[in-house]
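Lab notebook, bench 4. The sequencing result for the construct came back, and we need a structural model before the next group meeting so we can plan mutations. Quick request posted to the team channel:

Model the 3D structure of this chain.
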Amino acid sequence: MPEAHAQLLRRPSIIDQHLATLLQTVSIEVEAGSELLTDGIVDRLAELLTSDRAEQAAEIIAEMAKSEDNRIIMVQQAVIPPLVSMVHNSSPRALRQACRAMGNMCFESQTGRDIVLSEGGINALVTRLSELKPSERTSSSQNEVHYMLCGSLHTICMDHEEVQKEAIKLKSLPILVEYLKLSTDGTVLRFVLNIIAAFLDHGEEITEAAIELNLAPIASDILKSQKDDETVKEAVLDVLGNFNLLDKPLIQMQLYQSGVLSHIVDIINTSLDETDADAIERIASEILVLVVSHDGIAQLVFEDTTLDLTKEAMDWMRGYQEHLKGTGALVIGNLATSDLRSSALADKPELVELLFKVLDCDYSSDEMLVKVKHAALSALRNLSICEAAKPRIRPYLTTLLSYVSCDMPMLVYKSVGCVRCLTRGNSEIASELATNIPLLQGLVGVVDKYKYHNGIQGEVPRLISTLIVEGKPDSLTLSHMMECKIMPLILQMTTTKEFPQIQVEGWLAVQKVLHTQGDGTALLSDNVLKFCEGSLPDDTNPNVRILALNIIRMLSGTGSITKEEDLHEITEHLNRLSVSSTDVPAQQL
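Done. Here's the predicted structure in token form:
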């Protein structure tokens, strides 16, 4: 009967035999262990964990804890504290079973993890990890210990922030990095990488520590050496992805110098003939795009004869996999952040055509549509800054304009920016668009429609001012433009002190209108003088002050000023403003 088991384990003459029988029973059929739980057997096994039969007792507990029903009951009994003691003090052979039992007890059990944490179990695991670090001559039995130690910590750490914080506090990261450098076991590497990936979610301090330990290049070496192990590859990419590479230029450069980009490209290309990218390929493509977003690396990649990333990106855009179309466009966009590279890219006749094909495709979901088309427009916008690329993009102007009034603000924003860059330095396009009243009305409308979108609020006025400054609008054309209520948008540009270039663009547009119109009545009705006077006290941008004062003098009929007269004229005008301001009593608060 079941009631006899606990008593049998108290009889010295048969205890070893009965332990062996119990182990055989629960190993063959895990659920059989549930029949023993009412016998007091768990308490007896917990007692044996502090005896010379601790290894056998721990192995039985580990087998019984494979059952979720068993775990729920066992975790409430006094099993975990003696297991923690075992981890601290036992030989490597017994340690394997103690780690295994503790890990199984905590599998999908927050209660078990809480008990391990409160009993000092994380400290025990970290201490033994440090004591038993692998070496170049690690034996198979030692590797088994590493497997159990790392596996137990992995099970207990996952999805438990407090356990992770405790492990970080105990300075486990340098120890775990040593395991990455010395272990060759794929499962051990996966456990350690997953733990570190979880650590990197805990803020900048742990991330900086990982950088100092050269974690990124070490992980890259593992990616190269374990290229056939899918689980290890995914774990490496999780670690690299959790670094937030966009803000980490040092890691970006370390990754490039490690030579890992070609391996990441290989990972991406494994899904080229599939209908969709899996998790590994998606993470790999995101890492590639972020690394190449570093301008210095973009240049190095562009000059690298061993990895033709431009060709790879164009191949991805030619394919039918949606995610890779977007990845290819993003890579081109990052490479096109300098005139030199953009000019070289523009020499590839098919490139611009490919980007517009990506832009014109249908996609499986609205989310994917916005993501991929946004990437294509971003690349086209960067290319359109370069004079050599403009003639190749010009024939597609109608396509770009079709996105200006679409219902997807991210695409509106990028398309407006692309049209603006294409128009810069091209009076023909600027003059043509300046007469397109429906376009101007639509631009004013999207500013009103997307008040929350800072990008649209900035790009639309810049495009309108570019049409005025770069084009050759006559007085009648400008009058029609003014009727579209564009002046408030231009005047808003003049107040963006944090962006001096935008301020200058706004004032140049105002000045061009005044020069062309001659009569300043229309401008005075839009309170231009008030905006001019508001710019004079700002000494951060001399060009803005000169332009504003020029316009003040033009409106007052005294002509324009030269740069040498700037300081005196501004000082005199500020004095007049300060005197007039005393005419109105200040409100007392």
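The longest helix spans residues 366-384.
Will bring this to the meeting.
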